Amino acid sequence: MSRKKTVTKIQSDYVKKYDAQQQRQQKKKQRLIRRLVLFSIVVVVAVGVMTMYHMKQRAQYASKQEEYNQLEEQLTVLQEEKNSFLEEIELLNNEDYVLEIARTNYFFSKKGELIFKILDEIPSY
After folding, report:
1. What per-residue confidence (pLDDT) applies to 37?
2. Predicted local distance difference test score (pLDDT) of residue 124
3. Who contacts 15 (Cβ-Cβ below 8 Å, separation ≥6)?
4. 99 and 108 in contact (C-beta within 8 Å)?
5. Those residues with Cβ within 8 angstroms of residue 117's Cβ, 6 or more apart along the chain or in another chain
6. What is the average pLDDT across 7-27?
7. Are 108 and 102 contacting, i.e. CB atoms less than 8 angstroms apart?
8. Quick one: CA dihedral 36, 42, 48, 53, positive or negative?
């Protein structure tokens, strides 16, 4: 069986000063803990905001990179088309080429030449 021991406090100036010092240290410790918790919350929020911003930037970068690749492909196609048109312009400056096109597409004939049109389809009669 345990007996309850009671100890009475000594009422002296030293004990009162000691108790006051203990209370000040306890309050100081509580303020420190509150500041650390507040600082931790600020750090967590800052890291969260920076992480969200980074993810947003990565998504934006990926979309811009995709758009850039599409535009590069389009540029390549347009350059090939430009080269084709330049070749065609160069050929159209050649008189023999223009006469050949006129003969094949528009039935232009040389002097004394006869042109017969041959149907590719078989007549149904």
Report:
1. 98
2. 62
3. 9
4. yes
5. 107
6. 88
7. yes
8. negative
Long-range CB pairs of 96-101 (<8 Å, 24+ gap) are none
Q: In this predicted model, what pLDDT tens digit does every residue of 60-93 receive, in sequence order?
A: 999 999 999 999 999 999 999 999 999 999 998 9
- Measure the CA–CA gap between 113 and 91, rounded to whole angstroms: 25
User: Residue 11 has which token pair?
Assistant: 């009422």
Q: What per-residue string of b and e applies to 91-105 under the rule 16 or more CB within 10 Å gives b?
A: eeeeeeeeeeeeeee
Which tens digit of pLDDT belongs to each residue from 93-121? 998 888 888 887 777 777 777 777 777 77
Q: What six digits make up the tokens of 59?
A: 């998504």
What residue has token string 């800052």? 46
Q: List alpha helices for the chain, DSSP H.
A: 13-92, 95-106
- Distance in Å from the first CA to the final CA of the chain: 130
